[in-house]
Amino acid sequence: MNIQTVTGKLSPEVMLKTMIHEHLVFDLSGVRKEKDKDSMLENDSSLDQEIEMLKNSGCNTIVEVSNIGMGRDAGALYDIANKHDLVVIASTGFYKESVYPAFVFEKSAEELADIMIRDICEGMDGTDIKAGLIAEIGSSLNEITKTEEKVFKAAIMAHNRTGAPISTHCEIGTMGKEQLALFQKDNVVMKSVSFGHQDLNEDMEEQLLLLQSGAYIQFDTIGKNSYREDSAKVKNLLVLLDKGYENQIMLSCDITRKSHLKQNGGHGYNHLFENFIPALMESGVSNEIIDKMLVQNPREFLAFK
Ligand SMILES: [Zn+2]
User: Fold this and answer.
1) How far apart are CA 291 and CA 155, in angstroms?
2) Are strands 193-195 and 216-219 parallel, antiparallel or unpaired?
3) How many Cβ atoms are within 10 Å of 153's Cβ, its own excluded?
4) Span from the CA of 197 to the centroid of ligand 1 (angstroms)
5) Most CB contacts within 10 A, which of 2, 65, 67, 304?
6) Quick one: which of 182, 195, 114, 115 has its CA closest to 149?
7) Which residues are found with C-beta within 5 Å of the ion, ligand 1?
8) Annotated binding residue at 159?
9) If you measure from the C-alpha of residue 3 to the centroid of ligand 1, how many angstroms do you get, rounded to a whole number?
10) How far is the CA of 228 from the centre of ligand 1 (A)?
């Protein structure tokens, strides 16, 4: 089966190294109520530089998980894909309760599913640029609210209708087990689901529970040391790899602020390839296993089922 990129359906083979959970262009500045507009990423020269660094590292695919209410910009993603010869996969869905547009509280699960299906089958925001992933579908810290549960239900309906995969947001790594229960209640084939921000989850028993279900998990906040140090993430990852879960883990940095960009003194998207992958290799992780996490697993996860 194909993947669905902003420039159309493609064979998964076009994907080289892939970042599985990123934002290129989005705007959460209104939500976070910051005067400095740090929580806003734009299609500008600093992004161009970041992407050129990634391409030099052999990364040609970005999974963009900004969705409705997060300042998603389909046209900008299409332009970026063409300008940099980058594979970009865009997302549909709704993020979490504190970010939902007002209508999410009012509409039924069926109506929300219809919006997602339209984004996947017809195009996003009045364009013919299609979403290729249902993401990032989130829960709040230590809680799945009633409305969040409705959005999960809608995401499952849209998945069943379109075959698009689903990627979730676990706030600071929490609520994975409860999200899993929602998917299992509706008999979702867990190979189509990836749980986000699991590198922030210090409960390894829960990580293992998610992996045992057949789902993917993401170590996708690499470089965000304020939540958890990369060194702790490496140790955690080594244990999971040691248990043989290399076919179900994917990696990313989840860049969400201007201050994360290299030009502004941040670690940048390329931190994954520049620092984290070398740290894994120093710890004895083979090229073959790194290739699974960066290339093979994303190809299999993102192919429509
Ligand atoms: Zn997230």
Assistant:
1) 29
2) parallel
3) 18
4) 7
5) 65
6) 182
7) 136, 169
8) no
9) 22
10) 15
Could you give the CA distance from residue 170 to residue 148 in angstroms, rounded to a whole number? 12
Per-residue pLDDT of the chain (305 residues; tens, 9 = 90+): 999 999 999 999 999 999 999 999 999 987 766 556 899 999 999 999 999 999 999 999 999 999 999 999 999 999 999 999 999 999 999 999 999 999 999 999 999 999 999 999 999 999 999 999 999 999 999 999 999 999 999 999 999 999 999 999 999 999 999 999 999 999 999 999 999 999 999 999 999 999 999 999 999 999 999 999 999 999 999 999 999 999 999 999 999 999 999 999 999 999 999 999 999 999 999 999 999 999 999 999 999 99
Q: How far is the CA of 201 from the centre of ligand 1 (A)?
A: 13
User: Which DSSP symbol is given to 294?
Assistant: I
Separation CA 142–CA 131 (nearest Å): 29
| Residue from 134, 167, 19 nearest 86 by CA | 19
Closest by CA position to 254, among listed 271, 238, 231, 237: 271
C-alpha 39 – ligand 1 centre gap (Å): 13
Q: Assign domain 3-302 to its CATH superfamily.
A: Metal-dependent hydrolases (3.20.20.140)
Choose among 152, 146, 195, 149: nearest CA to 174: 195
- Show the tokens assigned to 105: 């509280």
| Domain boundary assignment for the chain | 3-302
Contact 261, 223 (CB under 8 A): no
271 is in an annotated binding site: no
State yes or no: 23 annotated in a binding site.
yes
Edge-to-edge strand list for the sheet holding 216-219: 91-92, 133-139, 166-170, 193-195, 216-219, 249-251
In a 3-state reduction of DSSP, which class is residue 87? strand
